[in-house]
């Protein structure tokens, strides 16, 4: 291997080809693994394997991005199978890492850009926190089969080659994933209604108005907070509008300088909590029947690095 290739393995971002493909690979890696750090590690490993090939071998690959996606998926598949141990020793509730931005994650403000990612999920829905939560409950084969087929439009024959199953088995896995998904990750409201409810929740929370918070929440709403054992968070899900309203009002009482702002989280309306100029929580919500049904609050600083001011 040449010294140039060794440098590229150590610093793939120096390579124009890497920069060209990075967004596409990160979009896939994040959907498969659920955290930015894990996706970055998997993309890095993909490039290690790419540059371990000889120059002529690389030049003989007609579609380099397809090779990298296949390799990345195999890496992610192996890591998914070994990730259960990490979840078992995780302190409190585990949530996928919330992401900001748009185009880097395969999101687009122009609906016409959604056309290439299948009919089951639009681009924004394929990264919503509601979907990411359900994906995390799937088996690794289900998750890979669903994402590759329904989101990235791979054929079952292509998926079979990647995960070592038959095409029919992959078809059944994707079907099982859709059944598991049901309507739980489908958008139940318009963007405008979702944003309006989030703004109302922000205003009520910012003023500690428990009555207003209760009115905005479904009676059997659920709130999950992820602190990773590194910051204060509920270690179990909060169930019911009263419990959730009291919990969020209590946060404000303990931290009166908290400022709550509107943000786009995982391609949907969300909220961020700030202490001074530092983001300390990122919140996703889902709406059902005109009220907030789910709240997912990320407080683990390890999963908020991309949100930190100045990063």
UniProtKB/TrEMBL annotation:
Interacts transiently with the RNA polymerase catalytic core formed by RpoA, RpoB, RpoC and RpoZ (2 alpha, 1 beta, 1 beta' and 1 omega subunit) to form the RNA polymerase holoenzyme that can initiate transcription. Residues 133-181 form the RNA polymerase sigma factor 70 region 4 type domain. It comes from Limoniibacter endophyticus. It holds the Pfam family Sigma70_r4_2. InterPro entries: ECF_Sigma-70_Domain, NTF2-like_dom_sf, RNA_pol_sigma70_r2, RNA_pol_sigma70_r4_t2, RNA_pol_sigma_r2, RNA_pol_sigma_r3/r4-like, WH-like_DNA-bd_sf. It comes from the Bacteria. This is RNA polymerase sigma24 factor. GO terms for molecular function: DNA binding; sigma factor activity. Residues 24-83 form the RNA polymerase sigma-70 region domain. GO terms for biological process: DNA-templated transcription initiation.
């Amino acid at each position: 291997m040449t010294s140039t290739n060794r440098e590229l393995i150590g610093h793939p971002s120096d390579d124009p080809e890497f920069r060209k493909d990075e967004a596409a690979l990160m979009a896939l890696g994040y959907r498969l693994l659920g955290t930015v750090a894990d996706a970055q590690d998997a993309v890095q490993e993909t490039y290690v394997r790419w540059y371990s090939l000889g120059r002529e071998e690389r030049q003989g690959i007609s579609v380099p991005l397809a090779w990298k996606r296949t390799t990345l998926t195999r890496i992610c598949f192996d890591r998914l199978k070994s990730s259960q141990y990490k979840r078992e020793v995780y302190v409190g509730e585990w949530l996928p890492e919330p992401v900001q931005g748009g185009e880097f994650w395969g999101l687009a403000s122009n609906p016409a850009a959604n056309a290439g990612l299948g009919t089951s999920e639009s681009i924004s829905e394929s990264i919503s926190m509601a979907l990411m939560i359900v994906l995390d409950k799937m088996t690794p084969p289900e998750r890979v089969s669903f994402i590759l087929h329904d989101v990235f439009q791979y054929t079952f024959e292509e998926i079979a080659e990647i995960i070592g199953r038959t095409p029919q088995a992959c078809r059944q896995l994707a079907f099982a994933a859709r059944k598991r998904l049901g309507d739980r990750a489908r958008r139940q409201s318009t963007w405008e209604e979702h944003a309006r409810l989030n703004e109302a929740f922000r205003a009520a929370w910012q003023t500690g108005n428990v009555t207003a918070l209760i009115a905005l929440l479904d009676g059997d709403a659920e709130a999950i907070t992820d602190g990773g054992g590194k910051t204060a968070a509920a270690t179990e899900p909060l169930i019911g509008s009263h419990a959730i309203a009291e919990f969020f009002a209590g946060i404000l009482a303990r931290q009166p300088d908290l400022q709550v702002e509107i943000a786009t989280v995982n391609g949907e309306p969300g909220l961020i909590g700030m202490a001074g100029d530092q983001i300390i929580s990122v919140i996703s919500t889902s709406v059902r029947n005109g009220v907030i049904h789910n709240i997912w609050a990320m407080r683990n600083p390890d999963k908020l690095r991309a949100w930190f001011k100045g990063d």
